[in-house]
Amino acid sequence: MSETRYTEDHEWARPEDGTTVIVGITDYAQEQLGELVFIELPEVGSELAQGDEAAVIESVKAAAEVKSPISGTVLETNDALKDAPDTVNREPTGDGWLFRINASDPAELDGLMNEAAYMSYLATLE
Amino acid sequence: MTNNRPLQTPLHALHCELGAKMVPFAGFEMPLQYSSGIITEHRHTRAAAGLFDVSHMGQIRLTGTDAAAALETLLPADVIGLAPSRQRYSVFTNERGGIADDLMITNAGDHLLLVVNAATKFDDLALLEANIGHRCGIELLDDHALIALQGPLAAQVLELSVTDIAQLPFMHAAAVAIGDTTCWISRSGYTGEDGYEISLPATDAAAVAEQLLQNDAVAPVGLGARDSLRLEAGLCLYGHDIDTDTTPREAGIEFAISKMRRRGGVREGGFPGADVILNQDTVPSRRRVGIKPLGRAPVREGADLVDAEYRPVGKVTSGSYGPTVEHPIAMGYVYGASALQGTTLNAIVRDKYRAVAVSPLPFVPHRYYRGR
């Protein structure tokens, strides 16, 4: 239950200790959006249901919403992105993480894709 | 059944070879960006030279001795007085004084060359044929490509292929040969930078583009950076910043109306909506202004603007991030005293108020070559 999970909207969710889950967007998502110029992160302490709008990421040409892949309470946001949104372009699954959430129902992750399933899903998009 | 397939410009294969991300635009498949990305392409254009395929735009040739006088019945420019090899910007107007399209007119000696917007070219053709088709020849040059070379190094790059082209002043044009190809080259563009637009036969377009791209100063630039460049330069995008419900005065593009077509001029009026446009004496109730978001969040087309007391005062018509100013930028229409420069307003973005300042246009100074 510790492997990274993926949504059809190209978010990733990686379980950490206990019920903490770290969330970001995939390399495919950042590639589709292009160079990011602004990221609006959720408020720490806000309650999100699975599928709720959690963040907004904007490139030169468009704004896209990031949905929370899991229900819970936002614990921490990656505030370094405010001054360097392009970190998400360079390291979408590393330093470009968006927020940490305390999952209220970690079992929700079981309903998301594992890496192999996500790769197969990407192959259907081309 | 296959009529919905997008058209391809003569440079389509070259775009794909160069790694372009192709998107549908105005009926064509066009490069949004290449592998280096919009921001890099934008900055490269301001620092060196960018090559743009704008072959989707409409190029229309008007022929016959009556063509200039006939065209003047549809727009407020002095076309009769447009000297050979000179270019002028104008707008087709409608009966309400609104703008049906904006365009460039070049006196190419034995004909007039019009460059109109891609999305409106068939409407423009229909307008021309219905109103002046009996007075002049009208031909859509769909066998021609249009390539723009823009940026501070554009002149020295093109000079390597075309002798003396660096001396051509802004809004002048010349028929020249590049190799065996005869082109109409104008000193103009849509970036605020010095540069050229090259009209040439489709069959020769890829060879000329490749020749220009061989120069290290030149990089291919897609529609994404074309939009951010023109927005920084404060230039209107038809269908967004100007449309059939906007007058030239509201848009701040009175220069599209030649002096002799204005009230008291030698050929006053005589174009659609002249009674509305020439009688807009007082300051229009709304005006196009620059809008600078004070925070980092981009404010985009369609965002409502409210004043400090949250009363509606306008709307954003274009908004993005300006890679040269390194800040979000926008423009839009604002009513009354709220349109004064320096006024702080709020843009409504995703149900939040974002502070913006009414700002002068352009955001980046124009750098046109006006001759020595």
How would you describe what is shown here?
The complex is a heterodimer of chains A (126) and B (372). Chain A starts with a strand and ends with a helix. Chain A has 126 residues and is of the alpha+beta class. Helix content of chain A is 17%, strand content 34%. Chain A has a single domain (5-121), classed as Beta Barrel (OB fold (Dihydrolipoamide Acetyltransferase, E2P)). In chain A, the strands form 2 sheets. Chain A has a 6-stranded antiparallel sheet with strand order 1-2-3-9-8-5. A 3-stranded antiparallel sheet of chain A has the order 4-6-7, with no helix packed on it. Chain B has 372 residues and is α+β, with helices and mostly antiparallel strands. Among the domains of chain B are: 7-55 and 143-232, Probable tRNA modification gtpase trme, domain 1 (Gyrase A, domain 2, 2-Layer Sandwich); 285-372, Elongation Factor Tu (Ef-tu), domain 3 (Beta Barrel). Chain B is 19% helix and 33% strand. Chain B has helices spanning 12-17, 38-47, 67-71, 121-132, 154-159, 202-213, 223-232, 248-251, 274-278, and strands at 7-8, 21-25, 28-33, 49-53, 58-63, 87-93, 99-107, 111-116, 137-140, 144-150, 173-178, 181-186, 195-201, 218-220, 286-293, 304-306, 312-322, 327-335, 344-349, 352-359. The longest helix of chain B has 12 residues, at 121-132. Chain B starts with 6 loop residues before the first strand and ends in a 13-residue tail after the last strand. The chains are: A alpha+beta (126), B alpha+beta (372). The A-B interface holds A 34-35, 37-38, 40, 56, 58-61, 63, 82 and B 32-33, 37-40, 42, 224, 227-228, 296-298, 300, 320-321, 323, 328, 350.
